[in-house]
Specification:
The chain is an alpha/beta fold. It contains five helices and five strands. It has helices at about 10-20, 35-45, 60-70, 85-95, 105-120; strands at about 5-10, 25-30, 50-55, 75-80, 100. A five-stranded parallel sheet has the order 2-1-3-4-5, sandwiched between helices. The radius of gyration is 13 Å and the shape is globular. The chain starts with a strand and ends with a helix.
């Protein structure tokens, strides 16, 4: 699995956990905690997968998903949040995420979603 992954979450423990779980010699992983840094990263680098935490964002998380979709329509976007409502999940799916998860995260499922997205890209 070769590729570039960007993790964006204000939750440091969550970022570290994802970084450790997804680390692999052929994968480059960057992480940011601020939305402005997320936007800069997306403008400056090509990513195969973006993992975005909808909760704790200063901006509306759903709006950020829309912005990311407009900036990089072909990037695989994985989103997660604390909100278990089917309403949010449905709206996020409607915006084109490839995988949506509710905390606590199933790291195996996220890793499978990342690997699947990278296989489709290559």
């Amino acid at each position: 699995m070769k590729g570039n992954i960007l993790i964006a979450s204000r939750d440091e423990a969550c970022r570290v956990e994802l970084l450790e779980w997804l680390s692999h010699e052929d994968v480059t992983i960057h992480s940011v905690c601020e939305e402005a840094d997320l936007l800069l990263e997306v403008l400056e680098r090509d990513y195969d997968v973006i993992i975005y935490d909808l909760q704790g964002a200063k901006l509306d998380g759903l709006k950020m998903v829309r912005i990311l979709r407009k900036m990089r329509p072909k990037v695989a976007l994985i989103a997660f949040s604390d909100d278990p409502s089917t309403d949010l999940g449905g709206r996020v799916w409607h915006e084109g995420v490839v995988y949506y998860a509710v905390k606590p995260l199933n790291l195996d499922a996220i890793k499978m979603a990342v690997m699947g997205a990278m296989r489709r890209k290559n």
